# Entry
Amino acid sequence: MDSAPEMELGRSRRRGVGGRSLEGARTMLFQPFNSSGVFRPEPARQSRPRRAGPLVIKLISFVLALLSTTAFGQAIESGPSPVGLKKLSLEELMDLDVTSVSKRAEKLSQAPSAIQVITQDDIRRFGATSLPEALRLASNLQVAQVDSRQWAISARGFNSTSADKLLVLIDGRAVYTPLYAGVFWDVQDTLLEDIERIEVISGPGASLWGSNAVNGVINITTKNSNDTQGTLLLGGGGTELRGVGGVRYGGELTSNIRFRVYGKSFDRDGTVLPDGRDAADGWRIGQGGFRMDWGVSAADLVTLQGDLYGGRIAQPATDNIAVDGGNVVGRWSHTVSDASDVKFQVYYDRTHRNIPGSFSESLDTYDLDFQHRFPVAVRHSVVWGLGYRLTNDDVGNTPVLAFLPARVSHQLFSAFVQDEITVLNDRLHLTLGTKLEHNDYTGIEVQPSGRASLNLSSRQTVWTGVSRAVRTPARLDTDLFVPSVAPYIIAGGPHVVSEKLLAYELGYRVRPLDRLSLSVAAFYNDYNDIRSVEELNPPLAFPVVLANGQTGHSYGMELAAEYQTTDWWRLNGGLTELHVQIRPKPGSTDTSMGSAESHDPKHQLFLRSSLDLPRHVQLATSLRYVGRIANQDLPAYGELDVRIACQPVAQLELSVVGQNLLHGRHAEFGALATRQEIERSVYGKATWRF
# Structure
């Protein structure tokens, strides 16, 4: 659960320590305290984080050592130059294969879901420096920067820094913490130049991906080692991104085994408070990793990859936050035919986080996943799979708050099956499937879905779907206690159940002209058993317990358009309309009306332009308008990002990026009492491939 400066502490009539409700407890998990245990939302000093330099030096030394020991004079295929990384044509984009919707390759133009794809070319052209910045390129997401390191990211509502209804995968590895059923965005990173694509689904994907794929799925896929041969060096810096550097080398061990190793680090300046003072939240982090792809045969591919990271994040009035961790993933895929394949994946993930004055956590995750796809008769394509996950979570408690018991182990067993039926001369596709999971909180959960897509013509597809998804309880729901010893003010809920969603979707995708594509999706989501804070002994204010006393619904529309005006100029646009309404169920004492669960703008508008100018010059601009977040009293804002790049030689790209150029600083998320503001920034970058 990320720190939560966005959470306004006094919206509920139930109060905790110092007038705080559940939102206050969430805030206390990540906000600093002074030596007397008093909450300090504002910085008492302006500090800078300690350097993560030793880790980065070791990673780069490791890379250089591999360079010297594995190159062995072979003729290595040089990596692609920026010239070779041209943007795809509109037709190529619509024919791009995506895998997140059906767990098989299918054309983007025919996928029965509201899906957008962020390509490597998009990431490079628009100057993203982190995964959250790259996700801004998907107009079907709500993405808000909270401070120097924290982001609130969701789809179709329920956004917060502890958003828990969006599943995120990086090369098949779920980057999920059972502490609050969400994502620590500050430690999700990779060398952005190695990303092949990011598939963003708005809407449930639980029948394939399981619990927490409630409002959407983000699937990040990195390149095969075959596509990252040669050497890449990058470096730069500026006003907010004070320094960034990276190195990657790709080579071959044998004719059918190729690999890459990388190291990277960055140094980010802190944000500012509304009065202009330094928020003292700058941070540095380093990361390195490897990937090896072994083509055992024409039908078999084995992949082994892993990452290691460590960093320090400043916080006011106390010591720096320390984060470190690593992962290793093994994957085998066997192709039987174009219509049949088998995949098996195993990974281990270790994360550690120490927030002085709040808590510490060490989490170990072990995961096994098996999948088999095969045809049945002529018109049926079946995919099924099994999964197992074991998590060992160990929390270091403080007198202010505790997770009790401090150490837990949880198991998750899962199975899914999906049948895609083709009728009407291959024009109509019906997809029926379900996921069954057994968790230690609520037992068996069933998450079915049904979808239909109709190809009206080679350029028109209409689709619809009905899905059920659940957000299973996390430790925050059942194990959180404030303070750490009785008598408690806030206590975990002994009878918490899963939050439930029944979702209805309708979409239309069309290419009316060779150079124009449009897609629109409308949805209605019906939620039940949403998390609430209930008085245990009314009318007494304390203690309060966590329960499922709220219900609600959301509805809206997502529109995306792409226009290739000329061979050298492309325009992209996106518009989202979102309405979320949450209310207490009969008998509930929660009067927050969902203000602790959802912080979303009703309107978002995006417009991007990408030009290829003469003499290998590129100009990209991105304009966004984000509407007011009413329950945070946060005003609407508009911002502009610009990137200009040139290539003096084919292997070298030089770029300058300006971000948030319309205002000196602005806020994107958070209640006024703890809000931080994002400053205008400029940085330069050089990328050399050879």
Remarks:
- The two ends are 41 Å apart (CA to CA).
- DSSP finds seven helices and 36 strands in the chain.
- Confidence is low (pLDDT under 50) at residues 1-21, 30-85.
